[in-house]
Design the sequence.
């Protein structure tokens, strides 16, 4: 039976599927155009500071530990991590500061004390969130939506019979507004739509599943930072025989008689493979790598997800009122999303996400200093004047941080690195810098996401731009789904 597999891209999905395929007995080569693994999960080091440059929240660690267990290893030996007591700290223009404790009861008490919410309503919301997860996990997350045979299986039938529980016919914002009395609380739960680059005023309320991961199952943080996940899994893959080829750009996926025949690598020529699994953005695959196949417009005529503008600041200060994860909300949240998805501009008062890993990993900044990852959501890259927008955004962000936390960021900032949608597109081959491929701004969005397989025999896809979506857990799930489609050699 054929046994040579090429994985294109060493993002978290690519690394995970490489581990799984190696454990099935395949010979696996991973080709990565950058000089490091991780894809969007990368790191930046400068002047004694270290930054996680991409994902910053770790949920469902069981999806990672499963890879180690399959390989006969213990995750604790390679990737120690701890559960967070506080998942996020929320700041509002009215001066309210809400600590989002990971324990549902403590979080409910905090929302009662600060925002006057009924604790029973908060716990009911999180209970409903759990039920949605239990229904959707075996259907949307852990299985393919694009295999007809799956729809006759018990989990699919169960979800269909309880479709009302998934709330697909209402928007996330509308459901949140009906649950909670204070606008600040509504904003907190609306924010979860941004976890896959979507608009809470349009996306179906099924996305209320996301708070379950933070407040029922818990949020975590690796002892060496988020990039430690990529490093540990890359090391695991190497131990199981996977070979990584860095600075190796794949120029073409080769197809012969409707079946994969190999890949063409820049500077290396054609290499024969029996199977190709791509972790590249699905748009990039069809536009640049599958040169013999017509571009399938049906998968790319839908609204794209948002992108991001990120500032990496080395700060010569230690903040007392900031936590590991912090959100400084916009005054008009609805208008901000209108700017992102309709006007394609940055809002005048953008919501700011401030992540400080040195709160947990002391070596991530010199003594007495902090590493600030400062991010705002932006529209996809449509040719905007990003240089002017970045200058304006930096000033607005600085003013906002001073107003809402009392910290004059400019005073303590020692250096700055910037990543905008143009850089995201260049480094990760994400079309227009869109972080998650298609948005989830419709009730049919899950079905419009490209499947994990193609019409070409031996070609599969993983990663954030295909089913089930973006973010660490879903990328790991995509690897598990693809692995399940391919027979063992052992």
Sequence:
């Amino acid at each position: 039976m054929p046994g040579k597999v090429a994985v294109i891209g060493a993002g978290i999905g690519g690394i995970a599927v490489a581990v799984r395929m190696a454990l099935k007995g395949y010979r696996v080569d991973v080709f990565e155009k950058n000089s490091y693994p991780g894809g969007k999960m990368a790191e930046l080091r400068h002047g004694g500071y270290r930054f996680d440059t991409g994902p910053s929240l770790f949920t469902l660690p069981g999806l990672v530990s499963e890879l180690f267990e399959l390989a006969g290893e213990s995750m604790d030996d390679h990737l120690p991590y701890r559960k967070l007591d506080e998942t996020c700290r929320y700041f509002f223009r009215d001066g309210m500061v809400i600590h989002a404790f990971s324990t549902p009861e403590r979080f409910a008490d905090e929302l009662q004390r600060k925002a006057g919410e009924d604790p029973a309503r908060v716990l009911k919301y999180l209970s409903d969130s759990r039920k949605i997860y239990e229904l959707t996990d075996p259907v949307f997350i852990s299985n393919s939506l694009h295999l007809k045979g799956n729809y006759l299986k018990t989990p699919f039938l169960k979800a269909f019979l309880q479709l009302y529980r998934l709330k697909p016919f209402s928007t996330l914002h509308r459901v949140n507004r009906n649950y909670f009395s204070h606008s600040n609380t509504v904003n907190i739960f609306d924010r979860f739509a941004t976890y896959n680059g979507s608009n809470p005023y349009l996306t179906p309320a099924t996305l209320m599943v996301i708070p379950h991961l933070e407040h029922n199952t818990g949020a975590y943080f690796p002892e060496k930072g988020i990039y430690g996940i990529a490093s540990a899994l890359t090391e695991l893959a190497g131990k199981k025989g996977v070979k990584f080829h860095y600075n190796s750009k794949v120029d073409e996926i080769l197809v012969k008689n409707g079946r994969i025949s190999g890949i063409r690598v820049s500077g290396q020529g054609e290499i024969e493979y029996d199977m190709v699994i791509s972790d590249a953005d699905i748009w990039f695959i069809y536009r640049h790598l599958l040169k013999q196949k017509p571009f399938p417009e049906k998968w790319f005529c839908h609204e794209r997800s948002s992108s991001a503008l990120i500032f990496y600041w080395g700060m010569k200060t230690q903040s007392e009122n900031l936590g590991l994860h912090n959100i400084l909300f916009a005054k008009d949240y609805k208008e901000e999303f209108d700017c992102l998805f309709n006007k394609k501009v940055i809002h005048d008062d953008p919501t700011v996400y401030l992540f400080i890993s040195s709160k947990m990993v002391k070596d991530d900044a010199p003594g007495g200093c902090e590493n600030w990852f400062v991010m705002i959501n932006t529209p996809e890259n449509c040719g905007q004047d990003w240089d002017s927008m970045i200058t304006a955004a930096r000033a607005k962000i600085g003013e906002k941080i001073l107003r809402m936390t009392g910290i004059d960021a400019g005073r303590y900032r020692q250096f700055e690195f910037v990543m905008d949608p143009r850089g995201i597109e260049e480094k990760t081959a994400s079309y227009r810098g869109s972080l998650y491929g298609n948005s989830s701004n419709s009730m049919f969005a899950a079905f419009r996401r490209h499947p994990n397989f193609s019409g070409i025999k031996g070609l599969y896809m993983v990663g954030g731009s295909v089913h089930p979506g973006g973010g660490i857990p879903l990328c790991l799930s995509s690897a598990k789904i693809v692995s399940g489609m391919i027979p063992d050699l052992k």
Notes: Residues 105-217 form one domain.
